[in-house]
Structure formats: C-alpha cells, structure tokens
Design goal:
Layout lengths: L8 E7 L6 H6 L6 E6 L6 H7 L3 E4 L7 H9 L5 E6 L2 E3 L1 H13 L4 E12 L2 E16 L3 E2 L9 E2 L3 E4 L9 E6 L2 H22 L5 H18 L6 H30 L6
Parallel strand pairs: 1-2, 1-4, 2-3, 6-10, 6-11
Antiparallel strand pairs: 4-7, 5-11, 6-7, 8-9
Helix pairs in contact: 5-7, 6-7
C-alpha cells in the first residue's frame, strides 16, 4: 500500500511597508512548504526581506486595509492547507508542530481551525488583548474573506473547529503596538474604515451608546479580561481601547450629521 504523504502548508501574508519585524515573522514559518507574500507596493525593505527568505511574491493594488487583497493572496497558494498571518505576527514552534499534526489528522468534514492569539504591546504580553480563537488555518479553497476591515473569513463548506484544549505556547504571537504614536495612527485609520461597515449594516448613531459603550469597553478589557494585571501598560492600552470605541461612535455621529446638513460649510 502506498504510504500517505504529509499534508502541505502554504503561509500567506499581505504586506504594506511591513519591515518592522517581518524578518522574524518569516523566520518563524521557515519550515512551510511555501510562503506567499502579497504586497501592496511597499516603499521600505519589505520585498528585500521577502526575497531573502525565498518567498513567492505577488502584488495587489494598494488598499486602505488588507482585507480586499486577502482572497487574491489566498488564491496564489498551492498547498493543501493555508495559514494566514499578518507581518507583525509570529508562529511559535509549538503552534507550528500542532498545525502540521492537525493538517495530517483532521477529519474530511473539518476544513478550518480557529487559533488563539497573544498580543504584545510596548514589549509586554497583554492579558486584556488575548483572543481565544481566530480562524487563520484552513483547507485551500474552503474559506473566503469579505471586503471590510477586521472581518472573519467565512467557511464555504464543512466545519470550523476551535483549537482545544489550550496548550502553553500554542498560539500566534501578535506584536501589535510598538509605540503609542503608531497605535494612535492605526486607531484613526481603522475607525475611518469602520464607517464603511456601519453604512453597509445601516448602523445608526445613539447618544446612549456614545456615553456608555466606551465605558463598557474599558470595564471589559481592564476588569473582565485582566488588564489591571498588566500594570501601567495595561491601564494605558485599556484606556486607548475605550478611546477607540469613543472615536468610532463620534465619527458615526459626524458622518450622519454631515449627510443631514450637506449645505453647511465644514
């Protein structure tokens, strides 16, 4: 009887001026069967770093976020399974071994795996930003992204399962916040993009939400998710998460106000 071959894994990464820890990101998945880098015409060392690691490079027109380019990037993969990463994320050795085993043993009706992610800010692991499940690993062709920012890829068929039980080190490591300045810039950019999603969903402004939702965000991240155990860094990050929600809802008010009063000077 012919011996069953190991399942192959493609790593897919969308990039735009992503040099900061891209070298470490690619090194963490060096054992992949192929690494696809879909670049939006970076102007820093992103492509140089990708070439050094022998990545397969393709290009997509520049967009305001990665989501519109993700399906195209996924389509370039040729392996049995696809692992989607961002350029500021690392895969631990424990997670890589888990993914290899999962790809070889998953039942046919299981097409995707939801993976924990640890987030780091200012060099510190943040309890409040821990995510229990992100759908990032799937059989090629089984999942599809929608176009708006921060969306979850949808399964086209089959089942998606959560990595269980949780194991030490079996997680994506997300080096999200290298400075407060860059976090504020992301906050402004992403809250702009959220307006497109609000418009599509028909979300309406509410003064009640503007007052109380940011307060709930702080309570959730600082108290319920343990941000208070992360010291001063935790307090700062949880306060900025509260600020993110306030800015998001304030921009929703601004958008609606300008639509209702198009004749005013702004």
């Amino acid at each position: 009887m012919e011996e069953k071959k190991d399942a192959t894994i493609s790593v897919v990464i969308n990039t735009l001026n992503a040099e900061r820890i891209f070298d470490q990101c690619l090194d963490s998945v060096k054992d992949a069967d192929e690494i696809i880098v879909c670049d939006m015409h970076s102007e820093d060392r992103t492509i140089e770093i990708a070439e050094k690691h022998g990545c397969k490079i393709c290009y997509h027109e520049r967009c305001r976020c990665a989501e519109p380019a993700r399906n195209y990037a996924d389509s370039q993969a040729t392996s049995d399974w696809v692992l989607v990463l961002d350029a500021d994320e690392l895969v631990t050795p424990e997670l890589w071994q888990y993914l290899k085993n999962f790809a070889n043993t998953a039942p046919e009706d299981v097409v995707a795996l939801e993976i924990p992610r640890e987030t780091y800010g200012l060099g510190k692991k943040l309890r409040s930003m821990y995510q229990h499940k992100l759908r990032r690993f799937w059989r090629k062709g089984s999942c599809e992204w929608k176009g708006h920012v921060h969306n979850i890829p949808e399964t086209l068929y089959g089942k998606s399962v959560v990595l269980h039980p949780r194991k030490e080190g079996v997680a994506i490591q997300h080096y999200h916040i290298d400075s407060l300045q860059s976090y504020l810039e992301k906050m402004n950019r992403y809250t702009d993009l959220e307006m497109e999603r609000f418009k599509t969903k028909g979300t309406k402004f509410s003064l009640f939400r503007l007052i109380f939702r940011p307060l709930y965000e702080f309570f959730k991240f600082y108290i319920l998710k343990g941000g208070f155990m992360d010291g001063v860094t935790g307090f700062i990050i949880c306060t900025m998460n509260m600020q993110y929600k306030f800015i998001q809802l304030a921009k929703l008010y601004e958008m609606e106000y300008k639509e209702k009063h198009p004749d005013l000077l702004y």
